[in-house]
Amino acid sequence: MKTHLLNTVLIVTLLFGSFTLYGQEQSESKTNNYVVMTTKIPQLSPIILTAEALKKEDGPAFGRFIVIICGKNSGELTYKDKMYPFIRKAEKADVEIVACGFSLNKFKVDTTKLPKAIRTVENGILYNFQLQKQGYKSISL
């Protein structure tokens, strides 16, 4: 009888303890971070619109929103007339635009011509995976 009672108490304690831990994990991860990888500059428009909608939907839980530009079209990042409207919209929406250094090197893009608002990472694909490991929600277009 004592063993049965002890087992019941132990099971109840473990159950409630695990619920408490689960609840703590949920409350600590209130920030929603996003990363989008794309190869096409014109996709910045719908991506930024999405960021704006998520920012409104998430409210205070909205964290970072990063767009990584990779591939052969990354050279278009140096076209200031094309990029500045995107950059202004991105800044208003708290969207960070990041260029893949591997792509810039491969396609011989003059990085001195990149707008200052665009940060470069060594390898965009690796950076995307690193962000996913940190819990970022990710999509590639």
Automatic annotation (TrEMBL):
Top-rank taxon: Bacteria
InterPro entries, A to Z: DsrEFH-like
Gene3D superfamilies the record matches: DsrEFH-like
Species: Bizionia paragorgiae
Lineage, uppermost ranks: Bacteria, Pseudomonadati, Bacteroidota, Flavobacteriia, Flavobacteriales
Entry protein name: DsrE/DsrF-like family protein
